[in-house]
Write a structure and sequence with these properties.
Layout: E1 2-7, E2 12-13, E3 17-25, E4 32-41, E5 49-55, E6 60-66, E7 77-83, E8 97-103, E9 112-117, E10 121-122, E11 126-134, E12 141-150, E13 158-164, E14 169-175, E15 186-192, E16 199-200, E17 206-212
Parallel strand pairs: 2-8, 9-16, 10-17
Antiparallel strand pairs: 1-3, 3-6, 4-5, 4-7, 7-8, 9-11, 11-14, 12-13, 12-15, 15-17
């Protein structure tokens, strides 16, 4: 006796039951015990393993496989039921298993963006900043930042967009220019701006990298230890 196998309806959302229909062709003359194995992908609380489904003389039986819901965002999954060989029947070679998709219904948490600055630099070098997303974004995320400077080190100030990939972090390099004029040391600051699809860390919303001047003061106009120029 061959067993025909189909699943009922479309995929389900987590927390609902995946429905399967087991049919016998021809119809059995008495109730027939059919062995099946239930497997699943994803963490949806499915009771996996071997079960016995009784196909009545009407020729078909429905198997409901429960899933559980949750609040965690996770990848979609599936439930698969596979017929096992047994006594009094054979298994269809083309319909010996069926799968029902299980969709997660939880929204991904909004990433919080933070920024940290690298070590101080000498004029002419690039100030390095690391912008990180927690949790990592599911897709590339555009983050708005504002670049400002203290001192005159040729920094391209203003608003920029930094793209954080799914790895969760990106590096922003801010170039400075060197010069021959002696001047006070300065800094580069990058400040995160609010935007779509993320929030800004309340404690790491900005970072500053020091920029050191590397030029000597002109003769007769040396800088005293207190940083004040005093001419001769």
């Amino acid at each position: 006796m061959g067993q025909q196998w189909t699943h009922v309806g479309n995929g389900v959302t987590e927390g609902r039951s995946a429905e399967f229909t087991i049919t016998a062709n021809p119809k059995p003359t008495a109730a027939l015990a059919v062995s099946v194995t239930v497997t699943a992908t994803g963490d949806y609380g499915v009771s996996t393993g071997t079960r016995t489904v009784t196909v009545p003389t009407t020729g078909s039986a429905t198997l409901s496989v429960a899933t559980t819901g949750g609040s965690a965002d996770e990848a979609d999954g599936s439930v698969t039921v596979t017929l096992k060989t047994g006594s009094g029947y054979t298994v269809s070679s083309s319909q010996g298993a069926a799968t029902v998709a299980v969709a997660d219904d939880d929204a991904a948490p909004t990433p919080e963006i933070s920024i940290t600055g690298g070590s101080g630099i000498t004029e002419g070098g690039s100030a390095e900043f690391t912008i990180a997303a927690n949790p990592k974004p599911a897709a590339a995320l555009a983050v708005n930042v504002t670049v400002s400077q203290s001192g005159d080190y040729g920094v391209n100030t203003g608003t920029r967009t930094v793209t954080i990939p799914t790895t969760g972090s990106a590096t922003l390099s801010v170039a400075t220019t060197g010069g021959s004029a002696d001047e006070a040391d300065g800094s580069v600051t990058v400040t995160l701006k609010t935007g779509s699809g993320y929030t800004v860390s309340s404690s790491q919303g900005a970072a500053t990298v020091a920029v050191s001047d590397d030029d000597d003061a002109p003769p007769g106009n040396q800088r005293d230890p207190d940083g004040v120029h005093r001419g001769g």
